[in-house]
Design brief:
With 424 residues, the protein is α/β, with parallel strands linked by helices. The chain folds into 2 domains: 205 residues, Enolpyruvate transferase domain (UDP-n-acetylglucosamine1-carboxyvinyl-transferase, Chain), CATH 3.65.10.10; 213 residues, Alpha-beta prism (UDP-n-acetylglucosamine1-carboxyvinyl-transferase, Chain). The longest helix has 13 residues.
Length: 424
């Protein structure tokens, strides 16, 4: 098992290129189950979550090839694979986004048996809205022995809402959308997630022959078609990876430039960084971040898109630990997503968690120590804290990080960080 070792106190400078979006790539890869013929998807990051879903798709009969330019070629010969409809526990348990195969399987192969998903431990993340949506389209669903088992001759369009207790459901919207594209008639999804990754899936499906309107709005209309064809497609840049590197520049009071960024996907993040006191300049697909020593405390509330992403909460917490004054983070997506707070306190941070709120008082410095990663974005937050901590920080259980960040330590090193991966 590996760990990351960081010598803090080095200012970051230079340029980094942002990879394609993990959370767009996964549902788009799953949607290839729907297509007749090969698809070539450009921009797929080389990370563990992609490898896990690739194994699931291969288990379902897919042929997957990664080219040297990062393009994935995915082909399904559907007539040969009608009897393959099971996504097993040993693979699905590693990653929550594996649930995205449910919709394509039930509408294309008329059967699906998908294990309840695993992934990061960040609080309750039920799949009840996924099941509700698939049922509304006419599928028979049974949930026993840890599996979701579904069957249907042909799904039928309907009207439904996907609003949950804490807002919209991103993966639920993806699942219902992919199930509805081959359904008979028209499906209207109210309270659909509006995240850029959901929009990217819809655009991918439309290029393959689907008829989806309302992309980027809270109401999606899907007119069912008989079949879809393979396509060439490039996924959007990863806004969470971009936000993480922006905060890396901010926390080290550095000066870095990010390439391959859609700043319109990062409005909430950029607005808060400017409120803290950073200088941020967006030109085309590049964003420059210039830090300083005159930061201000702020309040943050995570919200569905276009609000502040919950996946940026841990990174902002690390930054705010270094900002003089009191800041408050309110977590409205996953109220229990504060496991990283205890690890930051081990580094000397002053954080008090009160229900779904964290009160952060900036301290003069953080101290390097041994910390444990609890989930993907918590790991990113701890690495960011290590960049400015006095002495050396040892970040353990970094397999969580490898699920979503490609060669993070190497890319930070190229910006001037003193960080390395070592075998424990």
């Amino acid at each position: 098992m590996d760990k990351i070792v960081i010598e803090g106190g080095h200012r970051l400078e230079g340029t980094v290129r942002i990879n394609g979006a993990k959370n767009a790539a996964l549902p788009i890869m799953a949607a290839c189950l729907l297509l007749n013929g090969p698809s070539r998807i450009k921009g797929i990051p080389n990370i563990d979550d992609i490898h896990t879903l690739s194994k699931i798709l291969e288990n379902l009969g897919g042929q997957i090839k990664r080219n040297t330019d990062g393009t994935l070629e995915i082909t399904f010969m559907d007539r040969e694979n009608q009897d393959k409809f099971t996504a097993p526990y040993e693979l699905v348990s590693k990653m929550r986004a594996s649930i995205c195969v449910l919709g394509p399987l039930i509408t294309k192969r008329h059967k699906a048996k998908v294990s309840y998903p695993g992934g990061c431990v960040i609080g309750q993340r039920p799949v009840d809205l996924h099941i509700k949506g698939i049922k509304a389209l006419g599928a028979q669903i049974d949930t026993t022995e840890g599996y979701i088992t579904a069957s249907a001759d042909r799904l039928k369009g309907t009207e439904l809402s996907l609003k949950g207790e804490h807002g919209t459901t991103v993966l639920g919207t993806c699942n219902v959308m992919t199930a509805a594209v081959l359904a008979e008639g028209t499906t209207i999804i109210e309270d659909a997630a509006r995240e850029p990754e959901v929009q990217d899936l819809a655009r991918f499906l439309n290029k393959a022959g689907a008829k989806i309107t309302g992309i980027g709005e809270s109401t999606l209309t899907i007119e069912g078609v008989r079949e879809l064809h393979g396509v060439d497609y490039e996924i959007i840049p990863d806004r969470i990876e971009a936000g993480t590197f922006m905060i890396a520049g901010a926390i080290t009071r550095g000066n870095i430039t990010l390439e391959n960024v859609k700043s319109e996907h990062l409005t909430a993040v950029i607005d808060k960084l400017k409120e803290i006191g950073l200088e941020i300049i967006s030109v085309g697909n590049t964003v420059s971040v210039k830090g300083n020593n005159l930061y201000h405390p702020i309040d943050i509330t995570t919200m569905p898109y276009p609000g502040m992403p919950t996946d940026m909460q841990a990174q902002f917490m690390a930054l705010l630990c270094t900002v003089e004054g009191k800041s408050i983070i309110t977590e409205k997506i996953f109220p229990d997503r504060f496991m990283h707070a205890a690890e930051l306190r081990r580094m000397g941070a002053d954080i008090r968690v009160e229900g779904s709120c964290a009160v952060i008082k900036g301290v003069p410095f953080l101290s390097g120590t041994n910390v444990q990663v609890s989930d993907l974005r918590a790991g990113a937050g701890l690495v960011l804290a290590g960049l400015v901590a006095k002495d050396v920080t040892h970040v353990h259980r970094i397999y969580h990080l490898d699920r979503g960040y490609e060669r993070l330590e190497e890319r930070l090193s190229k910006l001037g960080a003193v960080v390395k991966r070592v075998d424990e």
